Sequence to fold (736 residues):
Amino acid sequence: MRKLKATCGVTVLSLLMVALLNGTVLSQAAPAGKDKLAEHWDNFLHFILIANPVEARSNGEAILDARPDPKRLYKLSLSMKTGRGPGVLARGRTLDKELAKIIIKIEVMIDAGAKAVRKDPTEISRWIKLLGGMPQHFLIGTERLITSSEYAIPQIISKLSDVNTPAILRERLVTILPRLGKEAVRPLVAALATEDPSVREIICRTLGKIGYPHAAPHLKVIIEQKDQMDSTRNAARVALSACAGKDSLNKSAAELFYQLSLKYYNRNESVNPDSRYDTANVWFWRGRSGLTYKIVPRVIFNDIYAMRSARMALALNPGLESAVTIWIAADIRKEINLPKGAADPTRSVDEPGAKFAALASGAKYLQCVLAKALADGDVRVALAVIESLARTAGAKNLVVSSVEGHDQPLVKAMSYPSRRVRYTAAEVLALARPTERFSGWHLVAPVLTEALRGTGKPAAIFADPKQGRRNIVKDLLRGGGCSVIDDAAFGKALQSARAEGGADLVVLASNITAPNMVQAITLLRAEAVFSRTPVIIIAGPNDVAGARILAKKDQLIVVVPDSSLDAASINAAIKAASAKASGAAPLSEDEAVEWSIRAAGCFRLLAMTQNLTYDLTGAVKSLIAALGDKRNSVRIAAAEALAQFPAARAQRAVARLAVDAEADEKVRVAAYAALSESVRRFGNQLEKKQFMAIVDDVMSKGSLKIRDAAAQALGALALKSENIQKIIQTLGRDKV
Fold:
């Protein structure tokens, strides 16, 4: 009888273990009667294993039709770990395309269930209780708590702080803590704020065993605090050495926090959140409430922690100015990256946005942020900083020779690959109207001229010594929406592109010589304006391998084999190249129009204020050319700008547009207004035939708007009496 009881006990224990492994004990009873979902799940796995996709699909569809609780489905999926093997679903995806679609949907539900279970406080509490049980229970509880990782920390810390926690459970909690891994570091360092010195010491030892460097500055704070117990300080010292090396013992907490802020800002792999999820947790210590967290979009997680680390660095060392740079940069990038309609839940609703801090920080720090954004290739942050500089900085602060080792960031921005950055920087420097020339002053007018001439079409440099293929590829590039600057020689094509203000794309035949393909890439990357310009290599049969080796070294290179050259391959390459351009994508047509108008506006202001810092001689030629633009708004802006230049050719060019019968009425009226302004400022510089054409417009029977505008111009020209008499005779006749 005793033997039977013992056998029964073993059987009951075995059943208990199976139930525990499937996550059902102590959480919910098995459904009454036959569990259809479990039956379908077992059949689903069975038919995958015996390679019967038809029956597997049937059971998979039944699982989806049941719309199960993802947590329940996840618990069923745990059987794959114990008896079926982790590759069952992966195997099923190879059996049948339709089955693969079903498996993907089921996997999405399992992942959702896993996430829900791993952070369920009730489940975590149950697993902690298992730790204090039999060895088998301890193993199961440990496995589940490792899965929960950071979500388990608040309850574990609470248990460790509770004097009523049994000694065996406390000991086992301390044992399993290091096994919770990297994700546990952030809540653990937040929990160092606990008032319980014994728990603080346990956390220090745990962080040392986990060994991730982002615990380092928090451990250093413990070491530097005078009111810490010696045992706690020693534990922190050992842990710091384990996490960040012995050299970290000689660094201040402020320095370590600054280094950590850089890691977060640069998205160092060691501090990134779990990429499987769209959200991540920011941890806080709330006194008696203990550990808590805020869920934030993953795209802003690093910026939030970069700001927190920089702020701690400044709290410990207010003179650490480089930390200010990181804080401002992270604040700006966080706001840029926030999903539409979302908010940062770690900040109060009434807290000012990133622009507030940027504007308040002043030109010095903004220039430092700009230098970092340019180095990082972060166009959006760079643009935001330049716009803030425009609102706050005087001319002297904009052209400062150096800031913390960064040589003229705003001036350097005018040679940046992104047209948006180049144009915005030149505009800010133009509108600042500095009274003295500075290093880089000569770049402002050419960049504005480039903006004035922009059409919104991506400009491509193309070099190919084979004329026939060059013509084919040139047509394909134009078909892909590009304007093309081409030549047999790369050097000549590059020189033409420089004269045009740069390019958005470079296309090279692999057989170019003097320079060859490798040398051409080296030349491009050595020149600031082309340093991040994407490159398409048209590779001949013998050059494909070499081109692909280049593409591995330079992530901005796309390879198109000559054998697959057609419209589809070129269009795909252009699209891929644009995606690689890191924010240097071509301007849209609407943006190009806006920038042409803004550039003309800059030239107008500089001429009106007679600014002598910039050489505007070339601007007159470009503005005159813009009068022939197909875009009416650009023609009007150019005419208004030319009205402020004293050169006779400027006034005469505006007059030609005003009397052009083919031009749009709105354009002609605006040109006449600009002509009136020019004549009032600089007197009559028109040729006789232009003067007579204006008189003809006044005396014609055409548009009254044009006649009124022409009459205003004539008035500015101060007509002689005989000319006035002719007009009176024409206009003053009595109607019969």
